[in-house]
Amino acid sequence: MSILKAAIIGGGSIADQNHIPALKTLSDQVEVTAICSRDLSKAKALADKHDIPFAFNDAAKMYASGGRPDIVVNCTANNLHHPFTIQALENGCHVFCEKPPAMNGQQAREMAAMAAHKGKILSYNFQLRQTEEYALLKKCLSNGELGKVYHIKANFLRRRGIPGWGNFTNKSIQGGGALIDLGVHILDLALGILDYQIPDRIVANTYDFIGKAGGKGLMGDWDPEKFEVEDACFAHLSFSDNASISLSSSFALNTKMQKNVNLEVFGTRAGALLNPFTIYTEFAGELTNMEFPHLEETDIQLKNTAAFLDACTGKQSNICNAEQGAVLQEIVERIYQSAQQ
Amino acid sequence: MSILKAAIIGGGSIADQNHIPALKTLSDQVEVTAICSRDLSKAKALADKHDIPFAFNDAAKMYASGGRPDIVVNCTANNLHHPFTIQALENGCHVFCEKPPAMNGQQAREMAAMAAHKGKILSYNFQLRQTEEYALLKKCLSNGELGKVYHIKANFLRRRGIPGWGNFTNKSIQGGGALIDLGVHILDLALGILDYQIPDRIVANTYDFIGKAGGKGLMGDWDPEKFEVEDACFAHLSFSDNASISLSSSFALNTKMQKNVNLEVFGTRAGALLNPFTIYTEFAGELTNMEFPHLEETDIQLKNTAAFLDACTGKQSNICNAEQGAVLQEIVERIYQSAQQ
Amino acid sequence: MSILKAAIIGGGSIADQNHIPALKTLSDQVEVTAICSRDLSKAKALADKHDIPFAFNDAAKMYASGGRPDIVVNCTANNLHHPFTIQALENGCHVFCEKPPAMNGQQAREMAAMAAHKGKILSYNFQLRQTEEYALLKKCLSNGELGKVYHIKANFLRRRGIPGWGNFTNKSIQGGGALIDLGVHILDLALGILDYQIPDRIVANTYDFIGKAGGKGLMGDWDPEKFEVEDACFAHLSFSDNASISLSSSFALNTKMQKNVNLEVFGTRAGALLNPFTIYTEFAGELTNMEFPHLEETDIQLKNTAAFLDACTGKQSNICNAEQGAVLQEIVERIYQSAQQ
Amino acid sequence: MSILKAAIIGGGSIADQNHIPALKTLSDQVEVTAICSRDLSKAKALADKHDIPFAFNDAAKMYASGGRPDIVVNCTANNLHHPFTIQALENGCHVFCEKPPAMNGQQAREMAAMAAHKGKILSYNFQLRQTEEYALLKKCLSNGELGKVYHIKANFLRRRGIPGWGNFTNKSIQGGGALIDLGVHILDLALGILDYQIPDRIVANTYDFIGKAGGKGLMGDWDPEKFEVEDACFAHLSFSDNASISLSSSFALNTKMQKNVNLEVFGTRAGALLNPFTIYTEFAGELTNMEFPHLEETDIQLKNTAAFLDACTGKQSNICNAEQGAVLQEIVERIYQSAQQ
Amino acid sequence: MSILKAAIIGGGSIADQNHIPALKTLSDQVEVTAICSRDLSKAKALADKHDIPFAFNDAAKMYASGGRPDIVVNCTANNLHHPFTIQALENGCHVFCEKPPAMNGQQAREMAAMAAHKGKILSYNFQLRQTEEYALLKKCLSNGELGKVYHIKANFLRRRGIPGWGNFTNKSIQGGGALIDLGVHILDLALGILDYQIPDRIVANTYDFIGKAGGKGLMGDWDPEKFEVEDACFAHLSFSDNASISLSSSFALNTKMQKNVNLEVFGTRAGALLNPFTIYTEFAGELTNMEFPHLEETDIQLKNTAAFLDACTGKQSNICNAEQGAVLQEIVERIYQSAQQ
Amino acid sequence: MSILKAAIIGGGSIADQNHIPALKTLSDQVEVTAICSRDLSKAKALADKHDIPFAFNDAAKMYASGGRPDIVVNCTANNLHHPFTIQALENGCHVFCEKPPAMNGQQAREMAAMAAHKGKILSYNFQLRQTEEYALLKKCLSNGELGKVYHIKANFLRRRGIPGWGNFTNKSIQGGGALIDLGVHILDLALGILDYQIPDRIVANTYDFIGKAGGKGLMGDWDPEKFEVEDACFAHLSFSDNASISLSSSFALNTKMQKNVNLEVFGTRAGALLNPFTIYTEFAGELTNMEFPHLEETDIQLKNTAAFLDACTGKQSNICNAEQGAVLQEIVERIYQSAQQ
């Protein structure tokens, strides 16, 4: 198998600490040939650090420079996911784009359409799909152990986790707050259980009280004056087959745990908790709680990057694809719309 | 203060084990003078057991017999709450009616209207209001310790708690299942935090998979063939001030705890968990969890009956009144309607 | 169904506190018509206390007095199990005999032969068979959930539980110590898992160090001078199908728990722990521990007595029968023989 | 003191990770001068990594090359323990041989005889003797705190620990499975408590159900087709002074803990648990559990290697000597023979 | 042995619930023949309830009435301990007096002198001496297991335990607060370890902040306006042999536990904690914590009353005698004096 | 801001591992220019290791060499704190001196007087002031959350923590044992709560039983023959405003925990525990325990060094100053004097 050439767009920490190390580890399949950042010195510094041959401050130049990459990893800010992904697809590259897919449903649909048009892989980096626990949950589901799943409680809650760095509180760059940054991860997991159906009814509420009031931060200090997004979002999604999701996400909430990322899945034969993975069901006519004490932690970024490469080379892969990304982004948009009513 | 005369309508266990003992304990304020049950032998047996002077098998006869009671305690099945309450009010009695208020919103509104018309107290026996924990929650709220409450998670969940006795699975008698029997308790508590506002948006789903499939029971065995109601109900309520409630109730659900009755309350200054009562807030610039290890258990039926008597004698009382009952019943009806969509 | 007549032989606490109350509770099936004890005053006192019509100090007189019982419950000391059981069977009665079956294998075989000859039920009161946990274990076994069971660790251990009363340390009355008094219970459970096979190899050791040295007692004080039996017994049983049992029992042992009664069952598909009931197996390709938090405690004496009555009236019953008793007693004898080598 | 010269035979991970680092740490007493492996490149790689002057692919060449080592560390596969140890002793070297001593009792006896003949130290690397807990157990024993020890339960159990690498499932190389690889460690500890007596009676059973069926592995994946050894072994050993050992070992067993290595020791004055070290006894007339929360972990390989060097230089040492190794190996052989019956 | 006659003085709950039931249980040694209370109806009611032949409202009348009791149990308020005890001794009775001995050292010395003069037993009801834990502590001490004890931390702390009934906050009746009511118990235990020596140096502080401020009560509500005593007392006692006690007692203190009654005893060979009883020492050269999980709870009032009867009949007894009472009371007085400085 | 020049006096591990690394981390404010040790080779080795330009074996030479340091860090033994601090102040340097301040009160007062005379900062390295927990305690105090603090229990206890190295048991070098080495830390914290008042009454006892008897060490082995200091000290301090401190410190004590460093602070409005930081108070009329689960660990040496630099540059600082050091040292001296009585 020939080695794929990958280019990175965006010089932030997600490139530096997640994507480039994962790609480097998979050096038998891929090599990183270029990095592109608006700030050329940043691009060069990363190129030096990770032994990447070329650094650019303009993606167009990169494509023009010859040596077109097979793969583009889009590590830019949310509002740049759409333009840089479209551009990369137009240049004939597979794209591995950071989450969320885009700023709104329209952008995500355009991105999916372009990928289909070009016959290229577009996928989004929802790496929580790769935990041992979620893999086991999906296996139980496909084995029929859960029966039909009819309700899911999906939480990604932080007590005081408004990041004190980056653009996380800037609406025009991020497109939103806790939902679009955190909730999307757990919404992706929940939708994965329900065959990525489109809900027919949504009601939601968003809040920004704590973000705008300020207070103790556990992920650095934020500026309440510049807090433009929701710090918490609660939504109920109902599907045409009568399944439902109760989705909660927060940057800041007066709750116990510093961080609570979990799914509770209720099926006709059994229920499941994601973390720690547990099944609640009947066995030999009695109620049982099944624990799995020997599951191991895995490098989920590495597994997700490998899954993307599998997709690029035509193999079976469990990565979030372009169509799923469009469905998810449209749901996010509808949640925000509902919260405006 | 003169002693009030109370009559009991309905000869089931709720009369025998809850209401009559509470009234007997409050013998300085009230005496039970009559008991009425369709089954006269049942009425007589209870009269004997509890030293009640008169037993009837027809409420009309009771009212006609002279010695009109001041108070009627309506312990009948859900579908009889409306007729016997209306009749008692028409006969000039205060009424202490079991929950839920009625079969639907229209009935509850008629009951409230009749109580207003007659100038009598009508209240519903939502005795969970009387725990030390809820009293403390309300005190914290009125002291401003929680700030404005904007979201509540309210749960009344049983793992396998479909009662194997009574009419709990009969829709025409009960009006519904987990929501109308269990969920109403915790909905009452949640509405009590939000000033008993009327929600402007509701989306809900109900299920009956486990009830209809049958299985292990932890409250006796039920007959899946006769299971006509929902075994689980999940709803999201949104209010005009943007507050919201996520309400979950179940008779049967594949979950861990045998019984889980709780509120999580999220306010701008603090959050609170009802059981065990805990506050999550900032103190001296740091995040704190406040525990209250010395709260005592109380006899909540006794306290609720005493609160009803206070209302009858014109005192301040925290009981669920006729208007609140009508609001709650209408919400229940709207939840069921949403779940039909 | 006609009511069976039962006579009790033996006036000790096992009659007073276990058998008579259980029989009384089952008054729709059985009535206790006579009690017989060497000490007539003891017999009369129990007859008074439990409303039993007749009291005797000689079983022969009882059988001669007319009104032959249908059932005899043999609550005598171990060395009298054989004569009173044989006598009762000869008199045409079903016999419910306390454990252990007898003093040695020969006696137990004679008892079984007489029961067969007379066509009567003879069973032994191994009531630990009736726990919810053992019932569930047997159900898992028959469902095939455990696969083939090949090894069992069976323990009935007390740290300092040499009874300070009765004849527990008297060899000529009891026939032995920890094994014949305690170990038989758990041996019965283990044999029940292995189809009550007869082992082909046994090696065992018995000890009496602590019993003869004396020390702190947790079940009263015993007299080390009169300690004639084993305080601990460890044995390995190997069966012709290569299954094996490791059996440990003690009255006194320098170990942690005051009392430890348990089975660990190792099968090809799953293992099981009896208390708290847990299954260790694979599920969906991962290792799981299955807990059963909602099992309830039951009145095991009542269930065992009811099972005996079922047997007497020709119904399916899970009680220890005469043949099983003979197998078990023979194994006990072989264990003692091995320990003498 | 002059520095001893050591040669390593066998280039596997036990040499690389255990023996060579321990010898290097003890550089004031010993230097590693040569390494020998059938695969010369392996020998050279290890020599490079650990700064060892000479590498050989043939032990005979090594001995012939001049610079005879004082010490040979035999890190070969089980079936080579005998030939390479005999050869080393013949060449006048002390030998530190990996466990188990040999493939059978005959080999181990020959090795002990040769060591005696040559006046050289031969010892086996049972490093679990060197834990703080075992040292304390032995001290309590020699102080008389336990009285006479009469029964020991010795366990080395893994739930799913069939190694997915090496020759652990190959009978002709390993000589057996769970017993010869794991059980020997804990048998050595138990025998050390009982003065390394020879048992007069043994009954044992071995199994291979899980190993041959396949399933989830927690130490890599194994090939059930090539599984030739026992996955579990249960044995009862009885000694002429009536002491006994119940020995359990497994590569795979449907049990709770991933790994359970422990001794329970029952003495006339006290009992002891090895991990966490606890004594159960009487004190001031009451029963006490004595815990030792401040014991420290030690580098048991380092201590065992040091103990071997002590033996080589004529000092007191607690290492497993040649005679003990022969006794142990003979017991292992008799256990396997018993299991064949 | 003839039966002793006992009279009770004082008709409060300590007589009703502690002393009379204990005396009744010991009916083979003692009978209660009279009860005396200022309030005759109270005396008569208790006489009826407990089947006591005579009731008086004046102790003098009782003594004059013939049938002089052998024993007087003084259950009066603290300020009446002295007069009623002196009177009883003058009337030739043994006296079992409630704690504290008296209002000050002078009274207690007079009481001891009168008892000595009359040759009668006077003892004080410090029943905490009778726990299994304290008995074991004393046994370890006398066995030499602790070596010489040189420091004791003695605590009797309540978080919010100002009694809402009785005279506990009235200084002229009680003589003080937390120290004289609660601290005396644990001081008695500590002095019992140090041979009831007299300290040569004392420094102490008392406080009444919470008592005078009011607040939440866990033993009923108290009136801060009438709070005249200390709510907390901290003292350091140093003895001529250099031993020392750190004594803390409180009715109210902002601390974690609702009630904390304990001793920590530091000796040269071992330390001990009273509850749960634990010894900290060296064993076999290592540090051990010795726990005693099988100690049983005992009826300490019954044991203390029996110990008093033993003393009255000339038997060995571990009860607090008149001289010890005088030492203890003098220490209490000196603590209060130190706190005034 | 110009960079301060610092010189280190004393070449022990406290210099090597605490002070020099902290100063290096603060390289934007300070540079280490010289190190001085009686043993020149030690000085040079540290200079090499930490890149310090100059090494001396005589402080006088250092001052004479030109390039006078702005700051001297006095890391010498206790008995040299006074002379080297006085010398440094005379040479116009700020001094950061290790704890305890000196050998006695007179020395500490002279040091404070010299610092005042020279207008230089002298402070002592009580770095426990810098924990998040103590900062929060002080904040609660200044916010009035605790009300007036009236009693403090201050403990620095080790079970067997007599250091097996250094001069810790040498009285002429150290000036004492557990109190002067460990107790001073927690005394400093307690005095910091009480505005560093001077107590008017002190009673204390010191012991050396375990130190002189020898035994198991958890911080190396010590020589009981050379044990000249106290192994435990218990003191009660009473202040003119009636506040009090109960202070306990030990190198060796027969107690449970290996190390127990804590404050319990009792105030009129609330109490506090330092580790884990908890507040005990009333809230909304109920008793609450406030926990702070999200406090972070900090580098307390770094913070204390930074605080010293702040003081040197005229900024607000919470470091222990010369006057506080003198008060503390005088209290230590009075405790030792009291223990001699």
What does the model show?
Helix content of chain A is 36%, strand content 25%. Chain A is α/β, with parallel strands linked by helices and 341 residues long. Chain A has an eight-stranded mixed beta sheet with strand order 8-9-10-7-11-12-13-14. In chain A, helix 4 (81-90) packs parallel to helix 5. Chain A folds into two domains: 4-127, NAD(P)-binding Rossmann-like Domain (Rossmann fold, 3-Layer(aba) Sandwich), CATH 3.40.50; 129-294 and 322-340, Dihydrodipicolinate Reductase, domain 2 (2-Layer Sandwich). The model of chain A has no long low-confidence stretch (mean pLDDT 97). The longest helix of chain A is centred in the C-terminal third of the chain and has 19 residues, at 322-340. Chains in contact: A-B, A-C, A-D, A-F, B-C, B-E, B-F, C-D, C-E, D-E, D-F, E-F.
Chart the SSEs and their pairings.
Six copies of one chain form a homohexamer.
Chain A: E1 4-9, H1 13-25, E2 30-36, H2 40-50, E3 54-56, H3 59-64, E4 71-74, H4 81-90, E5 94-97, H5 105-118, E6 122-124, H6 132-142, E7 149-158, H7 171-174, H8 178-193, E8 201-207, H9 209-213, E9 232-238, E10 244-250, E11 259-267, E12 270-273, E13 278-283, E14 286-291, H10 300-312, E15 320-321, H11 322-340
Parallel strand pairs in A: 1-2, 1-4, 2-3, 4-5, 5-6, 7-10
Antiparallel strand pairs in A: 6-15, 7-11, 8-9, 9-10, 11-12, 12-13, 13-14
Helix pairs in contact in A: 1-10, 4-5, 5-11
